[in-house]
Design brief:
By secondary structure, this protein is of the alpha/beta class. The chain has 3 domains: 5-49 and 351-497, no CATH class; 55-293, Spore Coat Polysaccharide Biosynthesis Protein SpsA, Chain A; 564-683, no CATH class. 47% of the residues lie in helices and 7% in strands. It contains 23 helices and 9 strands. It has helices at 5-8, 10-54, 90-98, 118-133, 149-163, 182-192, 212-235, 250-255, 266-276, 297-324, 329-363, 372-387, 397-406, 408-420, 457-476, 480-497, 540-543, 580-587, 613-620, 634-643, 658-661, 669-679, 687-690, and strands at 77-83, 107-113, 138-141, 168-171, 176-177, 196-205, 246-249, 280-291, 604-605. The chain has a 9-stranded mixed beta sheet, with helices on both faces. Helix 3 (90-98) links the parallel strand 1 and strand 2 (107-113). Helix 2 (10-54) packs parallel to helix 12 (372-387) and helix 7 packs across helix 13 (397-406). The radius of gyration is 29 Å and the shape is globular. It starts with a helix and ends in a 13-residue tail after the last helix. Residues 439-449, 513-518, 529-536, 543-628 and 644-703 have low confidence and may be disordered. It is an enzyme of class 2 (transferase). Its main location: Golgi. This is glucomannan 4-beta-mannosyltransferase. Pfam families: Glyco_trans_2_3 (PF13632). It catalyses: GDP-mannose + (glucomannan)n = GDP + (glucomannan)n+1.
């Protein structure tokens, strides 16, 4: 018996009774969580076996029509890019989305920049202006306040898109990198199925090897994406939009009430309201989108707090609407009790309450016996099946469990915050990304952060508690296996409390080289996909022109590896000293000045396209027919431009920054240019331009 039992008498007996009841309740919750996971895995196995035997994938249940051959007949698609002070990745996502294959005149890029950091704003403005001058319809919207955070920004942007007649909107967070053919792989599902409200792609990760922390995240998210989202979509159950890397039908957003900032999980909120109103959704396992995992423990804590607290808030606020909906009773019960009750709430009580609180207490109370099957067999089974969705995941299965338990203090506090709807539940802190996966020339992302000196009291307290329990069990000589677990888990809590899990910290070293081996042919080109690839999912109108180059062939000239570098406008000689006069003299080309329409500056700074492909070519020559070698002529370029086929032409000189030089809401682009030129009149003309040629002109090749 515990040594103090004789001293406390009846109080100790009461303590044992309460602890025994708590253990039984925790075992019951653990069984619910484990059963839910094992059922999901069983469904996954069923759908995979069915696909292997019949060749019928879940997405084949939905129509996938061919896209029209006429670019003007394509649906209007917008791409929203919400961001906030994400300096390391803001330019990469703009590059990626501007390279998406879709008819130029039917595509709009909308950058929703709530950044307060002047450097980030400058980087965003540079990219928006650069791509605008290349002829793309791109704008940057900025608000005077951050009301509603991400949901508020997307709501304001969506209101403008609906008024402009856009049918679909793709959403990407700043750390994502969609492939050029993303829209061709997703939009046809929305075109061919009027009942589908949104399409979600699968996340893949650029930096899982950066540290043990990112590897544990990969194991968790791979299970969520490859198993949970896949099986729920295939079975017709509810699965939430993941906030990014998906495409929405604008009519679905509008009829479901739009983006709402009542919780910090606006994506789950909107997808739940759409589901309750009868809209369907599709998860595409074969369409992937790269993104970066947070390598900073501080950023990861904030992300997990938001992802845990938000669903609890939504559970309390949406339950009434779920019960009042026309959903079948089984779907209502599944949503309220299994989706929210078990997956979003009970899981966190089991992790911290059972394995990190009750189990250590039983080390001091030998009268309470834990069933081995609930303590060892069931958790091992669940852990191994969860890790199976990650390559070599079994190697990191123990790491995954230890790290998930150590995050229990953050998640359980988030659950309590959400249940009580405390003020902190409404905090929305952006998950900082380092841009370590950005390999573009000139990219300045931080690859390895230095661990901070921040300490976390809750983790340190649990560390002391678990180390004491483990030491007591080891000295008592009973349950040595459990004592060893407590000592290891206590050490992990200590590492979390000392912030030693950041990249570069004690548990933050790289696991191995980030090398992806891709089979290539003799010419060094990647080999085609294997026989299991789903060729049916590529529209013929897109495949016939080389993977989506119908309106804008994949332009090597504007690829991210050859992106025109950002020019510092204040650098002497960068654009010339005399502004427009110098450009005309030095380049021999005339760029027609276009008067911009009067802009409504309702919380926006709107980028304006000044590319005049036809005018630039017509000013240089007047040939009326194609040359004998098949090269383009002004007439053919003009015809291409009218049909939307033209490739962005020569890049005119960058104008002054709109945010710095815009004198009034009614100013025109001509006034901005004239003011910028006048401001630079006093700078000497570079010698290369006085000689009548551009710098590096000898390297240029004429068409």
């Amino acid at each position: 018996m515990f040594p103090l039992a004789a001293s406390f008498g009846g109080y100790y007996a009461l303590y044992v009774a309460v602890l025994t009841a708590s253990v039984r309740l925790a075992v019951f919750l653990s069984c619910l969580v484990s059963a839910d996971r094992l059922i999901n895995i069983s469904k996954f196995v069923y759908f995979k076996i069915r696909a292997r035997l019949t060749g019928h994938l879940p997405e084949h249940d939905w129509a996938f029509p061919d896209l029209p051959h006429d670019p003007a007949a394509y649906p209007k698609v917008a791409v929203q890019l919400p961001m906030f002070n994400e300096r390391a990745v803001c330019q990469a996502i703009i590059d990626c989305c501007c390279e998406l294959h879709w008819p130029t005149q039917r595509l709009k890029i909308q950058v929703l920049d709530d950044s307060t950091d002047t450097v980030t704003r400058q980087l965003v403005d540079d990219k928006v202006l650069e791509w605008s001058e290349r002829g793309l319809d791109i704008e940057c919207l900025r608000r005077t306040n951050r009301q509603g955070y991400k949901a508020g920004a997307m709501k304001e942007g969506m209101d403008l898109l609906i008024k402009q007649g856009y049918l679909y909107v793709a959403v990407f967070d700043a750390d994502f990198k969609p492939e050029p053919g993303f829209l061709y792989q997703t939009i046809p599902y929305l075109e061919g199925n009027p009942s589908v409200g949104y399409v979600q792609s699968r996340w893949v990760f650029t930096n899982p090897q950066e540290s043990y922390l990112t590897k544990a995240q990969e194991v968790s998210l791979n299970y969520h994406m490859k198993c949970e989202q896949y099986t729920h979509s295939a079975a017709g159950s509810f699965f939430n939009f993941n906030g990014t890397a998906g495409v929405w039908r604008c009519a679905c957003i509008e009829t479901s009430g739009g983006w709402n900032s009542r919780t910090t999980v606006e994506d789950m909120d909107l997808s739940l309201r759409a589901y309750v109103r009868g809209w369907k959704a599709i998860f595409l396992d074969n369409v992937t989108c790269l993104n970066e995992l947070p390598a900073s423990f501080f950023a990861y804590r904030k992300q997990q707090h938001r992802w845990t607290c938000g669903p609890i808030q939504l559970w309390s606020k949406a339950s009434k609407d779920i019960w009042a909906s026309n959903l079948p009773l089984i779907r209502k019960l599944e949503l309220i009790f299994m989706y929210f009750g078990v997956r979003k709430c009970a899981t966190h009580f089991v992790s911290l309450g059972f394995f990190c609180t009750l189990v250590p207490l039983t080390m001091f109370t030998p009268e309470v016996v834990l069933p081995v099957w609930a303590l060892v067999h069931l958790p091992v089974c669940v852990t191994l099946t969860t890790a199976a969705f990650t390559p070599r995941g079994w190697v990191y299965s123990i790491l995954y469990v230890l790290f998930e338990n150590a995050m229990g203090t953050v998640k359980l506090w988030a659950v309590v915050t959400g249940i009580l709807d405390l003020q902190r539940a409404q905090e929305w802190v952006v998950t900082t990304k380092l841009g370590s996966s950005d390999k573009r020339p000139g990219a300045t992302g931080t690859s390895v952060p230095l661990p901070s000196c921040r300490l976390y009291v809750n983790e340190l307290a649990f560390s002391g508690f678990m180390l004491a329990a483990g030491a007591w069990g080891a000295l008592a000589g009973a349950q040595m296996g459990m004592a060893l677990y407590l000592l290891v888990q206590g050490a992990v809590f200590l590492a979390f409390g000392l912030n030693a899990v950041d990249a570069g910290g004690l548990l933050g070293g790289r696991l191995d080289d980030d090398v992806v081996l891709v089979p290539v042919n003799a010419a060094g080109e990647p080999l085609a996909a294997g026989p299991g690839a789903d060729a049916r999912r590529v529209p013929r109108s897109a495949a016939s022109v080389g993977g989506g180059g119908l309106a804008r062939p994949h332009p090597a000239a504007v690829g991210r590896t050859a992106t025109i570098p950002v020019i510092q406008l204040d650098a002497p000689g960068a654009l010339g000293a005399l502004g427009d006069d110098e450009r005309e003299e030095g380049t021999g080309m005339v760029f027609r000045k276009m008067e911009a329409p009067r802009l409504n500056r309702l919380n926006t700074i709107q980028a304006i396209s000044v590319l005049d492909t036809v005018g630039a070519y017509v000013s240089g020559t007047s040939s009326a027919s194609p040359s004998s070698d098949g090269s383009r002529t002004p007439d053919s370029v003009k015809a291409e431009a009218e049909r939307g086929f033209a490739t962005p032409g020569p890049m005119p000189g960058l104008m002054g920054k709109l945010g710095d030089m815009w004198p009034s809401p009614s100013s025109t682009l001509v006034a901005v240019q004239q003011g910028a030129a006048a401001a630079r009149r006093g700078i000497p003309l570079p010698a290369s331009l006085r000689a009548g040629r551009r710098p590096g002109a000898e390297d240029q090749h004429s068409d």
